[in-house]
Amino acid sequence: MARVLKIDNALKKQFAQNLNKKKKGKELITYFLIVCEGEKTEPNYFKSFPKKVGKFVFDIQYDGGGISTLKVVEKAIELRNKSTLKYDRVWAVFDRDSFKSNSFNSAILKAKANSIECAWSNEAFELWYLFHFQNRITAMNRNEYKKSIEDSINAKIIGNEKFKYQKNSTEMFDILAKYGNQDLAIKWAKELDDNIVGEQFAEYNPCTKVWKLVLELTGKSDELNKEILEKFSNGE
């Protein structure tokens, strides 16, 4: 997956010589490992992001599927530690669903203790989809997302065509890009995320951290951009 890195004028000047000399023509590869609880929904969505823009390329590996929240984190730790690659980011993607509060909270804390990023959602990943259309601030269970997503998309469709949500669809990225607003989804999800206090993450419904992973995959994360530019400058 790829992204355009937004570099201010000072940084452009700073790295110009490297780009024009030793690193001329080379691609800047950023290594991601994404371990998902879901077998298809989340991987299909993230795999749909653009693969390459200019010189910037994301080399992303996926794993997981059909495992508990804690197992997702443990799998991410295991794969990172065994890999010969030095990943720039390792993400664990999982939902609250019907998992017990203690299990959900413990998984997030274990990830943090082991430098694993968490794109968790309470209750379900589909909350991220819904944020493309509305600023959802009241609690809802996972069974309500399907109808809300369908209603939101069908309200945008002109004609007799009707959208039916399919959980494992490979088309959701394109559908959201056509009918939804990713920038608003990031904004609204971040606003809820900013309200989290303490470590009782299971109490925050609705809430999703997927916005932060998407921010990185679309080149809008200043923190990651800075790290990549420093790595590029150091010749790593």
Explain briefly what this protein structure is:
This protein has 236 residues and is α/β, with parallel strands linked by helices.
Molecular structure report:
With 236 residues, the protein is an alpha/beta fold. The protein has one domain (9-233). The chain contains ten helices and six strands, in the order H-E-H-E-E-H-E-H-E-H-H-H-H-E-H-H. The protein has helices at 9-20, 41-46, 69-82, 101-113, 126-130, 142-154, 172-179, 182-193, 210-217, 222-233; strands at 28-36, 52-53, 56-64, 89-95, 117-122, 207-208. It has a six-stranded mixed sheet with strand order 2-3-1-4-5-6, sandwiched between helices. The chain is globular, with a radius of gyration of 19 Å. 33% of the residues are buried. Residues 1-7 and 14-23 have low confidence and may be disordered.
